[in-house]
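User: Show me a protein chain along with its predicted structure.
Assistant: Here is one chain, sequence first, then structure tokens.
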Amino acid sequence: MDLIEHKFVETNGGLKLHVAQIGTGDKVVLLLHGFPEIWYSWRHQMLALAGAGYRAIAPDYRGYGLSDPPPKPDEATFIDFAADVAAVLDSLQIPKAAVVAKDFGVYVASRFALLYPERLQGMVTLGIPFTPPGPGASAILALLHEGFYARRWMEPGRAEADFGRFDAKTVVRKIYVLFAGTELPTAAVDQEIMDLVGASPDLPAWLTEEDLSTYGDLYQKSGFQTALKVPYRYSKLKESADVTDLTVRVPAMLILGDKDYVRKSPGFEDYANFGVKHFVPDLEIVHLSEGSHFVQEQLPEQVNELILGFLGARIWS
């Protein structure tokens, strides 16, 4: 990790965002994390990309890790995050990049692809397919049990109280253990989400205590305020995106772990395997039979091979 450089860049609104980067040159790959992740979740991919001659850049979103919080967290949206991505490229004087995104980072990448199409060279998404702005995610949530974690975390104050019983490292531990499973994380009426696992559950074999400490330290610094607003409460806000063409016109790849709990969401399989191609016609879909929700950390060699193969064959051939 010592080879990875860290710096801060400023957005148009004056926020300072933390950026991790490694490698040089004009073949740039921007990596967008999910939750409870941070730039560090791309550590394996960053080293592999740099070793193959690419420049890898992984920002922390506003309000995450070492980045400044948004001035009005209750009003933050994915469009703000997408604008921050463009600002990172501007600050580093990068005209275009390929984007690799995971989990809710795919929502950020999707907005970036639609709002800044001239800056996108290609897209790889992990776990979640391209998702255009609209009521789709909210409609799916409405079909799930009221105890589903995302529905619980949409309630103002509920997750804050639940998380507040523990330090940040313990919260991240519990979420990693939950999300690494194959079932939709769902609590009973008299349970909170943090109660679904024990006080100190064993980590997945691919995540070390040192890794967990890194996540814990970063979330101890930022807290979970923005992380609960975006993505979990963004759907209550109107995303005013002036977009009429919802088609992504660059090569794309979707990597799905067959043991990812998200696969059990209503309607997911039909959209991920068929419907998404309406919006992303040049899409390759790859399944990893043992892959969990955290495929880039669980199976880094397989994921790196897929990403490097895609970039070399489809983007910079």
